[in-house]
Structure formats: structure tokens, C-alpha cells
Specification:
Number of strands: 0
Helix content: 55-70%
Order of helices and strands: HH
Distance between the termini: 18 Å
Shape: elongated
Amino acid sequence: MASKTPAGNEPDHVVVPPKSNAGKLDYTYIIGGILLWGLIGWGLDFLLHTAWIVFAALPVGAVCGYFLARHHQRHGRPDDNQQH
């Protein structure tokens, strides 16, 4: 797999992920965020004897997953094939 080099105006340590995997990665982070924050909300509901925290935590998880996916696309780790 050929390593993708950044554009001339980007720093050398920025690696742009391939376009074909970018959408799948976004969904993975968003679903993972929903699951994680859903579990956190469910646990807080159980501890605090409420029933609304899980519903507030689900959109928080989706937003956190979205921003984590954007961060990963901008500041992802360099390719393993790249020489330093």
C-alpha cells in the first residue's frame, strides 16, 4: 500500500487517511462513542435511581465520537511504511 504524503502546506507529521476508509472510520468512532456514553449513562442511572441520564448521554457520545474521528483524520499516526 502506497503511503500518502501530505500536501505542500501541511506539516510532515500529518498523514491524510485514504478516502475509502474515512467514512467507515467515522461511523466506528460515532457508534463507539454512543455505546461508551450509553453505558456510562446507564451506570449513572442505576447508581442515582434516575431514568433520563442515559438519554442525555447518547447524543453526547455521538458528538464526542464525531469530534474524535475528525481529530484522528487531522492528527493520525504516521504510516508504518514511512521512513524517518
